[in-house]
Amino acid sequence: MTIGVPKEIKDGENRVGITPAGVLTLVQRGHTVLVEAGAGQASGIEDRQYQAAGARVLPQAADVWSGADLVVKVKEPLAPEFPLMKPGLVLFTYLHLASSLPLTRSLLERQVVAIGYETVQTDAGALPLLVPMSEVAGKLSVQLGARYLEATWGGRGLLLGGVPGVPPADVVILGAGVVGINAAKVAMGLGAHVTILDINHDRLRYLDDIMHGNVITVFSNPLTVERSVGYADLLIGAVLVPGARAPKLVTAQMVHQMRPGSVIVDVAVDQGGCIATIRPTSHSQPIYLVDGVIHYGVPNIPAAVPRTATYALTNATLPYLVELADLGPEQAARENPQLARGVNLACGRVAHPAVAETFGLPLEPWPTAAG
Fold this sequence. Notes:
CATH superfamily of the largest domain: NAD(P)-binding Rossmann-like Domain
Radius of gyration: 21 Å
CATH topology of the largest domain: Rossmann fold
Structural class: alpha/beta
Shape: globular
Number of helices: 13
Strand order of the largest sheet: 3-2-1-4-5-6-14-15
CATH architecture of the largest domain: 3-Layer(aba) Sandwich
Oligomer: single chain
Strand content: 15-25%
Low-confidence stretches: none
């Protein structure tokens, strides 16, 4: 199979879909890898490193897309890339389709087999290709929040961990998944006063155990969310429903009651966000104000640390990519239920229940028994 690796074009997206080690693995298995010139530069990977691993480096994105049977990316295709997708192409990337009807329609019209990293799921419900980027985003969310709490950026002028005699900032985290736990670890390590909310008692018990009581755990419901948001200096949205839009847990009225100069970082913005006043921003223009509250809505947070993020991502995706290349998408999906759950769209059909429900489209599981 021929695998294509185009350069990412999303604002501030510095990651790349594969490392030279990943290229070498595929080439040694008899596959061809096409890499767009400069695709890895922002991650500290030079074209010559890809060439040394056996890749062909091509000058234009169109050359990569047209020559590939399977395209591996980091972020979802943007409008300029839509015409480059050909029927039968296998696309392996973060998709987050529930937040974009235009992308969903384009992939359906072009008969693409679209497999989302964020919906590849184990029998136990884990999301192995989302975990590494969730770890990065969770840790970065606190660093970002600490920065924007500084008066220089319009924040309340708070040091997250305080100093002796002056209390620390209050960090409130909505969701005790991978993002939430990593955010809590960093916030606690910096000395902040941390509250984390979730609807899963087991997750809250686990957090209470590993944090040794240093993080306050609260069962999430509208009343506890409202109360917690009211005293938050830094509010982190870390809610995830696999493949679906994030539920709006924080209303505009709750945001209105926050103190001016407080900060919101909604990591769930790539799935629509869990805060009513959030909208997607970009690395070049990351923040905006609502009622004096700083909102950070960048949907590709890990792109700020591309070298760490690119290598962490390839470590997780490569085994699945090898299966797709070796077996083809249909056979790979039949043999690996985790990959089958990752198929969002295929050959003009909606194959993922959450995507079908979000847009009111018919669900047609793929591959079918007859192919």
